[in-house]
Amino acid sequence: MEKTLGQLAEFLGGVAVGDTAAVITGVKGIEEAGAGDITFVANPKYMRFLETTSASAVIVPPDVQPEGKSLIQVDNPYLAFAKVVALFSAGTRDYFGVSPHAFVHPESQVDPQCAVYPFAYVGKGAQVKKKAVLYPGVYVGDGAFIGEESILYPNVTVMDRCVIMNRVIIHGGTVIGADGFGFAHEGDKQVKFPQIGIVVIEDDVEIGSNCSIDRAALGETRIHRGVKMDNLVQIGHNVIVEEDSILVAQVGISGSTHIGKKAILAGQAGLVGHITVGDGAIVTAKCGVNKSIPPGEVMSGFPMMPHKKWLRAMSVAAKLPELKKEIDSLGKRMEQLEKKTDKV
Fold first, then answer.
1. C-alpha distances in angstroms, 329 versus 198, 318, 326, 337?
2. What is the pLDDT at residue 68?
3. What residues are annotated to the active site?
4. Is the pLDDT of residue 93 over 70?
């Protein structure tokens, strides 16, 4: 693909500075970029590379204008560069249809514009819509639904009747619709509670590798539009994650918990079941969430406490060895004073 600097500036809604006719043929990081490449800089600590980069153009904030450089000035350079990378990488996938080495049940519905790679499996009654991509080793169970332009990377499993809507990206090894962890007690035994619900993944969700999203016991486990999920995330049965929330690596959410819109759960946060995390709330890394969180709150620690309180507690924790020495010293001095008092 080739675009002029002026065309890219128009595409991004930015201001072109310098040679607007410069032809851009690729995208690279600022240290690696050369002639024909466009790059970006957003973090002030990387501004020094503007003087040494060999890139033909750089996407920068509005107040940056080094001499002799062709630029596109935008409010959010990182977002703009992401859009340019997507533009230059679009159209590289070949929607070649169904490989003869894939298994596609005769009673399934697979759009001819899909890419179904060798050794993928599509079960009875499943639907795979236009421009979906199933890489080798993908399993689509009976009655499952894969929406338009969704991409399932190698060894993704979508169990029976689960729904993946449009433009969803699921990375390798993830399992959608395994049984939820539900058991009833019968004396000393654990009796499995049948997990007969489904999982629904809405439009524009991205799920990292080796995640597990359990089907509902009854009803739905639902991941709403625009949610972004890192690798190694566990979602229990009947969990609801609302729009545009972010779940970072190794987050674990127990069953029937409700995560609000635009919430952020940082790495290794663990949540008990049957609670609510409000819209816009932030749970920091390794936090143990044992009760509901109001909207907009920031929580930290194990067990959970407000983030500012946790920071104060951690500042004290770092001084505990010295504080212990002081307490021990004060204790000895008290003993000495008491002995003197007793003699008087």
1. 63, 19, 5, 12
2. 86
3. 237
4. no
